[in-house]
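Reopening this ticket.

The earlier resolution said the output was attached, but the attachment link was broken on my side. Pasting everything inline this time so it's all in one place.
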Amino acid sequence: MRFLRSHRALLLAVAGGVLFALTSPPTNIYPAVIVGLALLAASLTLPPEPRGSAIAPGELGFWRAFGRGGAWGTAAGIVGLRFVPAVIQRFTPLGVFAAYLALVLLAAAQSLIWAFAAGITAVLRRHARVPFELSFAIGVFVAVSLPTVFAWTPAGLISPWPAFVQLADLVGERGVSAVFAVGAALLCRAALALGGATPEPSDASVSPAPLRFGPAARWPALAALALFALLAIHGALRIRSLTADAPALPSVKIGLVDHAVPPLERWDPKNSAPILRSLRELTRKLENDGVELTIWPEAAYPYALEHDARAVPHAGPMTILGGRVRGPLLIGLITREKPTFTTAGEVEYNSYNSATLITPDGAMQAPYDKLQLLWFGEMVPLGAELPWLRHLFQKSGGLIPGSEPRALTLERATGPSLRMGVLNCYEDTLTTVGRRVAVELAPNLLVNVTNDAWFQGTAEPELHARLAAMRAVELRRDLVRAVNLGVVSWVDAAGVVRARYAGEEAGTLQVTPTIRNASLTAYARVGDAPLRITFGIAALFFALRKRRAKKKPSIERSTNPEGL
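Inline output:
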C-alpha cells in the first residue's frame, strides 16, 4: 500500500495511457479516449513526492510533470502500437525480444510529445495560474501539433463516431482534440471534488472530505456532459445538412482497386508481369460495370517510369491500356529522376513515390510526388534539409520528396471536371499536408493511394483508415481510398464511411463520391493560427493577472507598514 500511495500519480498516468490506447482497433472502446485523458489530467494534480519537496503541495514542476506525461505516452504507445513487433518479426531477422524492445523504444520516443505537453500544463498552472481545464487543453493541443512517426490524436481515434468531430472544419483535428481535453479535465475536476480536493495548486493541501456529490463535483460533471452533448448535437445536425445537400450535387462513379499483392512480392521483378495482368483484369471488370475512373493503389504499377514521361508504354510487357482496358486511370507508381552526380563524383539515382492520371489516349499527366515521406521507411529524418545525411544512408540515391502538390485533372463528357488532390500513403493522416493540398490546389475530390501490405493481418490498416477520415471533415471533401491489402473506402464530406472493402483477396469497390466545388473551409484557410493566438493571449492574461496580484500585497504593506 505504501508503494501504491507513493507512486499513485505514476500509476494513474500509466492506467490512463492504457485506457486511451484501447480506443484504437481492434478493441475500439471509444469512450476510453476521454477517460484516458482524464486520468492523465488527474496525475498532474497530485502533489510531488516526497512531501518535503521545495515545491508547494499540489504544484508540479516541469520535469515531474514531464515524467508523468512520458509514462502516460509510453503506456499508450505500447498498447496502441502493439502491431509493431509482428511486422518487425515478419520482415527482419530480429527475434521476439528485439521486436518488443523496438516497440518499447518507439513508444518511449513517441511519448516525448506527451511528456512535453504535461510539462507545459504544469508550467502554465504553476507560473501563470492558468485554469486547470485551459492549461490541460493547451498541453494536449501542443502534443498533437508536434511531429511524430504515427500521428494519432484523440479526435482521430473517435472518428468512427463522426458526430463528435464535426467541429474539425472550424478548428481542425487538433482543435477538436483540445476540446476533448477540456471535457476530460472537467471530469477530472468532478472526480477530485468527490474526495474534497480540487486541481488548483493553492487548494491541494486541504484535507480530503468524505465522498459527496456536492456542487463542486456536480457542476464540472454537468459541464462535461453538456460539452459532449453539444458536440454530438451540432455534429448530428451538420451531418444531416451535408447529407441532405449531397443528392443535388454532381457525383462520379469510381472503381477502387485492391490487387492484394504481398509486400515482398511487389518488389521482385519476376512478379511484375503477373501483377500488371491482375491490375488490368480488375480494371477491365470495373470498366465493364460503367465506372468513369479506376484508381490503383500506391506504387501498384510494377515498373518504374521516367519522371518527365508524358505517355505510357504502348507495347510490350509494360503496357497499361489496350486489351479491353480503356482508361482513364489514376495509378500509384515509382518515377525515376535522371541520374545525377554528387560532389564526390558518384552517380545518384533518385526516385519519387508518385501518382499520375492516364487518359484513354495514353497521355500521362505530370505526376503528384509524395510530399511527406515516411520516417525511416522511405527517408532519413532531416534528410531533405541535410543532403549529406541522406547520402550517408542512401549511397546511390533513394526516394526523395516532391517539391509541391500537383492536382490531377480529369475532363468529363458529362458533368464537371474532376480536380483531384492526392494524399499518398500516410499523407492522409497529416493535417498539414491535407491543408496544403486544399489551399494550393482547391480540389473537388480527395484521393488516397496506399500500400498497407506491410501491416497485413494487424490493426494498422484500420487505424490508418480511421485517422484518414479526419481529412474529409477538415476539408469538407469526399475522400476515396485505393489500398493494397488494407481498407479500401469512400468517406463522405461529413466523415461518414459510405462504403468499404477490407478483404484479404484481390477485390474492387465501386463508389459514387460527391464532387464538391464549395469554397475552402475555415480550417483550410487559416489552420491552427486562431487557436494558437487564443491560447497565447489567454496564457498571457492569466500570467499578468498573477503578477498584478503579487504586486498588490507588497504595495499595501509599503503604504501601511504598521498594518493599521
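Reporter confirms the inline version is readable. Residues 215-245 form the longest helix (31 residues). The chain is about 45% helix and 10% strand.
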